[in-house]
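Project outcomes to date are best conveyed with an example. Our students and postdoctoral researchers have been running inverse folding experiments weekly, and each run begins with a structure described purely in tokens. The record below, which covers 87 residues, was selected by the lab manager from last quarter's runs and is presented without edits.
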């Protein structure tokens, strides 16, 4: 199985956080991401702490997944209603 460059960067990011005793949701994790991107790509990443938090917020992630079978609350409700109707 081959890993893409993004996979390797993500792995390096998580490893760097782990070495520092941090999780992706911790304050300052966005700064660690910026460091890893520079280290791995040589390019500076411009992301605010607020945008980083939004991108890593599980609630936001779930609410955006509104596709058929997705985890968004409205879709889960629809799936439950469909299942109940079939019983």
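After processing, the design step wrote out the following sequence:
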């Amino acid at each position: 199985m081959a890993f893409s460059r993004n996979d390797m960067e993500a792995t390096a990011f998580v490893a760097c956080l782990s070495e520092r005793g941090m999780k992706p949701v911790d304050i300052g994790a966005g700064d660690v991401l910026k460091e890893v991107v520079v280290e791995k790509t040589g390019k500076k990443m411009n992301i605010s702490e607020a945008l980083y938090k939004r991108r890593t917020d599980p609630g936001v992630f779930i609410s955006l997944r509104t596709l058929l079978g997705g985890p968004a609350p409205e879709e889960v409700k629809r799936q439950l209603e469909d299942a109940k109707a079939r019983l």
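The mean pLDDT is 86. Residues 5-19 form the longest helix (15 residues). The training component of this project remains on track.
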